[in-house]
Amino acid sequence: MRWTVIVPIVALLVLALTWGRSTGGLLVAVVALALVGAVIAAVHHAEIVAHRVGEPFGTLILAVAVTVIEVGLIVMLMSAKGEGSESLARDTVFSAFMIVCNGVMGLCLLVGALKHRVLEFRVDGVTAALATLSAVATLALVLPNFTVATPGPTYSTAQLAFAGIASLTLYGVFVFMQTVRHRDYFLPVRADSERGPSEEHADPPALRTAMTSLGLLVLCLVSVVGLAKTASPAIEASIRAIGAPRTTVGVTIALLVLLPETAAAVRAAARNRVQNSFNLALGSALASIGLTIPSIAVVSMLSGTSLALGLGPLQMVLLALTVVITTLTVAPGRATLMQGTVHLVLFGAFLFLAVSP
């Protein structure tokens, strides 16, 4: 049996043995190792399924897989009703937005430009994704600060329902455009004749192999959500020990769940297929908001829990700056080392200010 088969099974066994138990010392290390292994295995199996279905459906599968992990983590941690649970969805979604649009995109541009100097991508598809992402992010994370139906950075029940439906509608139309109506906008720029030898002979996996990977991917997703829930007390204790803000929990969750897509996106950029990288990056950010917010809204309304969505002034400045910089990056259809560096510096600023606001 290959490691990609063994790791999901072992992770599921670790989850079964540790679920509901307090973790400490060696047990935390075992849970952490199983968690990292499950994430890496999820990358592998998601890429096999993605290769079978082809682009751009493959990147869509990766984005949905990551969103499932994210929603599961948020719902479980919110159900614990700990300190700051009402703002956990906002912190996680905003962190995912910043990580994807600055960290992942910046790293892809840096790696690709160092190897291939100038990177090309299709403006039509990337700008459509960015426009949709900007609208959804503003509806979900900015407008709650300016509504007057309820006090604080919150929506009323009717407003929350409208924001959830609007986000889901925008995401659904974007997926239709990406996979059906304008599929060619999201395909790699280079022709098949320009691909390297490894890409020319990389035949799609057999249906049986893809279905096996799909089943193992589901096991990995379940294991990641469960193990992260088990390890969350240790994560929160570590954050309190270093004196970091409570919002750092959301940053930690987002960093963890976005690891699979980050690895896949960077590998695509290294092969001079930055269009695939952007499909992954912007698609996952859009899925993170467009699917997570409606899901959390439903949970909030059914459970009667409060949901704080509005960002603070510092976060709104970072959000606006990210949208402007990303627009300037993608508008020409070409990018170099400079754009990658700018995004990574902004990502560093986000991480620093998250720990030391």
Task: Tell me briefly what this model is.
It is a multi-pass membrane protein. The protein is an all-alpha fold and 357 residues long.
Sum up the structure in keywords:
357 residues; A middle domain of Talin 1; 14 helices; two-stranded antiparallel sheet; 1% strand; mainly alpha
Please describe the topology of this protein.
Elements: H1 3-18, H2 26-53, H3 57-79, H4 88-116, E1 119-120, H5 123-141, H6 157-181, H7 197-200, H8 207-241, H9 248-257, H10 259-270, H11 274-290, H12 292-303, H13 313-330, E2 334-335, H14 337-355
Antiparallel strand pairs: 1-2
Helix pairs in contact: 1-2, 1-8, 2-3, 2-8, 2-10, 3-8, 3-11, 3-12, 4-9, 4-10, 4-11, 4-13, 4-14, 5-6, 5-11, 5-13, 6-11, 6-12, 8-9, 10-11, 13-14
What does this protein structure show overall?
- It is a multi-pass membrane protein.
- This is Calcium:proton antiporter.
- It is found in: Membrane.
- The chain crosses the membrane at residues 30-50, 57-80, 92-114, 126-146, 158-177, 214-235, 247-266, 278-302, 308-330, 337-355.
- By secondary structure, this protein is mostly helical.
- It is built from 14 helices and two strands, in the order ααααβαααααααααβα.
- The protein has helices at residues 3-18, 26-53, 57-79, 88-116, 123-141, 157-181, 197-200, 207-241, 248-257, 259-270, 274-290, 292-303, 313-330, 337-355, and strands spanning 119-120, 334-335.
- It has a two-stranded antiparallel sheet.
- Helix 4 packs parallel to helix 10 and helix 5 (123-141) runs parallel beside helix 11.
- The longest helix has 35 residues, at 207-241.
- It is globular, with a radius of gyration of 20 Å.
- Mean pLDDT is 82; it is low at 191-201.
